[in-house]
Write a structure and sequence with these properties.
Layout: H1 3-91
């Protein structure tokens, strides 16, 4: 074989090896991707359960907070009405009996 032919054969061999390496890398990454997807599918139910549990806890806390806010607003309303009632009685010359300590 001539030197030129040997060079061409060697170049084509190098190209073939480069292509083979590329295909091998693609296969490895594809296999890794499939493995990650399977792993994610196994982990996903647990993540969903944790997220649902967190949502339930947050909802319970939000309900409790809303209840406290509503109770405070109701207490303020009763205090305001009581003050108004006392003022009306004072204007009429009457008053509540208040025991002093």
């Amino acid at each position: 074989m001539s030197v030129e032919k040997m060079t061409k054969v060697e170049e084509s061999f190098q190209k073939a090896m480069g292509l083979k390496k590329t295909v091998d890398r693609w296969r490895n990454s594809h296999t890794h991707c499939l493995w990650q997807m399977a792993l994610g599918q196994r982990r996903n139910p647990y993540a969903t359960l944790r997220m649902q549990d967190t949502m339930v806890q947050e909802l319970a806390l939000a309900k409790k907070q809303l209840l406290m806010v509503r109770q405070a607003a109701l207490h303020q309303l009763f205090e305001k009405e009581h003050q108004q009632y006392q003022q009306e009685l004072n204007q009429m010359g009457k008053a509540f009996y208040v025991e002093r300590f």
